[in-house]
Design a protein that fits this description.
There is one protein chain. This protein has a single domain, classed as NADP-dependent oxidoreductase domain (TIM Barrel, Alpha-Beta Barrel), CATH 3.20.20. It is globular. Helices cover 40% and strands 17% of the residues. The two termini are 35 Å apart. Strand 8, helix 6 and strand 9 form a beta-alpha-beta unit. It is an alpha/beta fold and 273 residues long. Strands 3-4-5-6-7-8-9-10 form an eight-stranded parallel β-sheet.
């Protein structure tokens, strides 16, 4: 198992994203992933599948301490009382005890950040979460949040893949000693059809998707590719038996383009340009 560590928090370098997974399919995929070697599972209040993720973990029979479970507080729950109540609800849904890593899913301009961060730190003090962090935070938000949290934040989770230049927020993560975690690391499947990634993959006997994941992990970025296909689970995990050269890395870096962002909602912050 490969880990990326920040401030005493060891995050498995490859996890399973569970967005859009639901019902028995979600339970089955989580259980199967554990059998294949996954130990990192990412869910969220907004996904509506915390219960199924927890069920999949329990059904696998694995020891609780061997699994790293992440969930995220919905932006509608960032007022202090709502945040604490919703976290307790998440714990009730997961039925796995404390949350390994609790993130703020999206910023909410309607709630003062100092109040939200204070509440996040409080749930950690209460033992509801072992570690805390944020998601979809820009450089200015990250600076403010980490100052308010007195350096307790261990992670920023955000969209990251070869077609999007995230160098500014990655630099901010490193400045604040946080682990960057990439969602949509295969660009919602777009990496699979990219000629450059395919060519590099052929040199290493790997798929374009595996090259995309390796490119990120090799930079110290954890990845949480989502899949509903059991056969893809093993492929996404098999990225530690090869290494991209400096030339490979530079070639992939040149794939970033101005319109490379995939996730951009009405409630998104003003992204770092």
């Amino acid at each position: 198992m490969h880990f990326i560590e920040a401030k005493g928090c060891r995050i498995p370098a490859v996890g399973l994203g569970t967005w859009q997974l639901s019902g028995r399919d979600c339970v089955r995929i989580v259980e199967q992933a554990i059998k294949l070697g996954y130990r990192h599972f990412d869910t969220a209040q907004m996904y509506g599948n915390e219960r199924e993720v927890g069920e999949g973990v329990r059904a696998s029979g694995i020891k609780r301490e061997e699994v790293f479970v992440v969930t995220k507080v919905a932006p509608d729950n960032l007022a202090p009382r709502q945040l604490e109540r919703s976290v307790k609800e998440s714990i009730g849904h997961l039925r796995l005890g404390e949350i390994d890593l609790l993130l703020l899913h999206w910023p909410n301009k309607g709630v003062p950040l100092n109040e939200t961060i204070a509440a996040l730190c409080e749930v950690k003090r209460e033992g509801l979460a072992r570690h805390i962090g944020v998601s979809n935070y820009t450089v200015p938000l990250l600076e403010e949040a980490d100052t308010l949290a007195e350096g307790r934040l261990v992670c920023n989770q955000f969209e990251c893949h070869p077609f999007l230049d995230q160098s500014k927020v990655l630099a901010a993560c490193r400045k604040h000693h946080m682990t960057p975690v990439a969602y949509s690391p295969i660009a919602r499947g777009n990496a699979k059809g990219d000629a450059t990634l395919q060519t590099i993959g052929k040199r290493h006997g790997k798929s374009a998707a595996q090259v995309s994941l390796r490119y990120l992990v090799q930079q110290g970025i954890a990845v949480i590719p989502r899949t509903s296909k059991v056969e893809r689970l093993a492929e996404n995990l098999a990225i530690f038996d090869f290494e991209l050269s400096d030339d490979d890395m530079a070639e992939i870096a040149r794939l970033a383009r101005p319109d490379g962002r995939i996730v951009d909602w009405a409630w998104s912050p003003q992204w770092d340009s």
